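queue> holo job accepted (zinc ion)
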Amino acid sequence: MYGYNVFHKKLMMTLIESVRRNENANTYIFEGAEGLKKHEAALLFAKSLVCTSTDTAPCCDCPACHEAQGLSHPDIVFVEREKDKATLGVEPIRDMITECLIKPFYNRHKVFIINEGDLLTPQAQNAFLKIIEEPPAYAVFIIVCTNSQILLETVRSRAVSVTFTPVSDNDIREYINTTYPDEPRVDFLVKYSMGIPGYVDRIIEREDFDELREEVLNLLPRLLSKNKIHAFDVSDYIEEHKDNADEIYDMMLMYLRDAIVTATGKPDKIINTDKTEKINLLASKYTASTLTSASDELMMAKKMLERYIKASATALHAALKVK
Ligand SMILES: [Zn+2]
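queue> job finished
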């Protein structure tokens, strides 16, 4: 479809159909978990808005579509956080507004894709509000984010919200087979990625993925240990691997989930099928409530990471609190 891998087909077709009927909105929020290919979806939607073909947009064949695909279409503008800033501030939004006042070069629309919308500061959002309250008819804004609740209500109420959910196992399988035809771990990846194609990329790109997985599995008994001195081993490990803390927490959560399903008599639901021996051991050694408590504390640790709390501190907090 449309010349490249497209996820969320129904959703995209609905959006594209609205462009063909000339019924598209001015402002959209594309929301969903990291790794769901929302940026690709935003680009595809932008393509349908700038394509010069009258009835098959996006045709993926006209010069506009080619330029869009090559990220060089002058009427598709990417609004990004400045490299040295932790937030998406008012400056890039002001630049966007200046750019927005210039009419499109080629066709009827000019599209602004705002990446990392979760990081928009309130000032940036207030500046943005001014333009979306009375936008030029040709302008279309797409805010890409993981959680729209972070945005101001005044912004949300003026936007069409488009929610992206995990894709089907079949779509993931097809994606792996076409993108990584030599990949031997297809069945495992389909289960492990849980409908998030970006996870597949992340796992395949990480050369030390299997090694890290093994280390994290061996670390879990220390997280679950009643001897609280072991909490420091967990926090030391996280400190040593702080750039991957988020990934490590995901791995731990996945193992704990497997141990819980095993402990509750559903071992066929295991994701880490290559590690059943150690997972069985965890399930027999710890009660379901200890495993659940650890899982809750790790989720909390992940949230703390998002708030830029030091990785080792989040690990220590989690390990000390497991009951
Ligand atoms: Zn086209």
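queue> The chain has a mean pLDDT of 92.
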